[in-house]
Amino acid sequence: MRCDVCLILEGTYPYVAGGVSTWVAQIIEYMPDINFGILYLAANRREKLTLKYDLPVNVTEVQEVYIHDFPKKVRSKHDHRLGVEDWEDIRFFQRSIAQGEPLDVLRLQQIVRKLEDSTEFMQEFAYSHRAWEAVLELYTNFEDDPSEFNDFFWSYRFINLPVIKLLTTKLMPAKIYHSACTGYAALLGALFSRLTGSPLLISEHGIYTRERRIEIFDADWICGDSAVPLSLDMSRRSNRYKEWWVNLFFSLSRTAYKSAEQVYSLFEANRRDQVADGADPERIKIIPNGIDLTKFLAVKPRRRNDDETFVIGYVGRIAPIKDVKTLIKSLDFLKRYGVDFKALIMGPYDEDLAYYEECRELVVGLDLEHEVEFTGRVKVLDKLGSIDVGVISSISEGLPFAILEAGGAGVPFVATDVGSCRELIEGRTEEDRALGIGGYVVPVASPRELARALRKVARSAEWAREMGSNLRDRVCKYYDLKDVMEQYREEYRKCFERELLHPKCRLD
After folding, report:
1. Which of 131, 172, 374, 375 is 20 to 30 Å from the Cα of 487, by its Cα?
2. In degrees, to the nearest 5, what angle opens at C-alpha 472 toward C-alphas 316 and 403?
3. What is the chain's alpha carbon radius of gyration, rounded to the nearest angstrom?
């Protein structure tokens, strides 16, 4: 069955809660007349997938793709089914990844289809003599120390095999392919778009390459030199293996940008980053996130007196990129400042259990057990009326739903200066800024500055209510879900109209 829109998702809806998942749920639920298929990219079958959302009836198909599930080595009678020219193309593909260049996904998929099934192709790519020769050739251009071969070999496999695995994915026919990020998901979208002629649309919430770079520079599992502390200077290269990983994600993003008919950005700064990473500026359109105002305007903001306990609310995933540890450290400063507070850290923690445990240990180590509560995932609407300020301390964001939802309920906000946080809190244009500030913006990874901003909000309940009112006015004026969804509906409509005028070919 051919769906109207195939959503290609990586680590998000319907198995992971978060901002991007909220956006996906909005798209599906707002357009009940459109049938959606979901291609969900997961690591491997050992990853337990549990639905975090009830699937609406217009979700007609869900297909999981496990990018790290590789076949075990078996003896094959057909060790050289691929020709010399095929392997030349494969070597070019490997060099392109190492250099961060776009990939010819259609040519690669044509090579895959030469063999009887995808498992046979993976066998030849991973274990044949020609595969070994390709490894050695790339190694001679990469590393001059024979003792480093073990590090090189495993880096090579984990960088290249998932990409090859994606090329063996069963096609989900669709009129439109819509990826919620670049990376692996959009690579699959680029392939299916080339195979069928259906357009590829990409919506980026956070810039994928930037977020992967942050993770890679702070990773201690990558071969080579010892991991260095996370640096906010994204031009750093800690070792050549980390550079290789970074180039992989640049390669995937540039392939996606080259293949996309339209790329959507949440705000202007992200649009500039997309252009810098290779996106055609003529194909980028800004469509922000939005919230259902009818739900959030119904929330009655808490009317705290200055002598009452100050209630702080964090809503988000407990994950390294959200830098919850900086928030916890800021609460230690806030306690030293003599502020009587309660902090609710609300959000799922199953994405990175080790990080969650580290956060809990930090709370204990700073003697904040009385002040800090980890609630797990909550219904945000039920909590917004009981907090005095919202907060996030992320090191990377797009356009956070946490700020929109707090603003819709009239709750002021303190956030780090990432993504669109400053324009949400202070305003984007002169007309927008005239509405007044909705809270405070602080530097990244600065717990003392975060604590000072929270203390400012705590000192005057009246000033906090005024900032909350300003933020509510801004959200109502610029971030109404109805307006946002109508923009996406119009984008889909234009694609469907072209489909009717010029039907795309379909592959069996």
Report:
1. 172
2. 15
3. 24
182-226 pLDDT, tens digit each = 999 999 999 999 999 999 999 999 888 988 988 888 777 776 554
268/256 Cα distance (integer angstroms)? 20
Residue 461: C-alpha distances to residues 251, 385, 402, 409, 457 (Å) = 50, 14, 21, 16, 7
To the nearest 10°, report the CA torsion of 482, 487, 489, 492: -160
Distances (CA, A) of 418 to 295, 421, 423, 508: 27, 6, 10, 45
Is residue 234 scored above 50 in pLDDT? no
Q: Report how far apart the first and last C-alpha atoms of the chain are (Å, whole number).
A: 11
Report the pLDDT value the prediction gives residue 114, as an integer from 0 to 100. 75
**Integer CA distances (angstroms), 449 to 325, 415, 455, in order:** 14, 11, 10
Could you report the per-residue pLDDT of 5-31, keeping only the tens digit for each? Answer: 999 999 999 999 888 999 999 999 999
* 137 has a pLDDT exceeding 60: yes
| Helix extents (H) in 67-207 | 84-99, 105-112, 118-127, 129-140, 149-166, 183-196
Sorted by sequence, the CB contacts under 8 Å of residue 371 that are 6+ apart come out as 331, 335, 341, 342, 343
Per-residue pLDDT tens digits for 353-365: 999 999 999 999 9
The answer to whether 53 touches 26, Cβ cutoff 8 Å, is no
Q: How far is CA 344 from CA 315, 316, 380, in A?
A: 8, 11, 12
* One-letter amino acid of 264: Y
SS3 295: helix
Residue 220 forms beta bridges with which residues? none
Angle at which helices 118-127 and 129-140 cross, to 10°: 50
| Coil, strand or helix at 175 | strand
Cα–Cα dist 114/277, whole Å:
33
CB atoms within 10 A of CB 455: 17
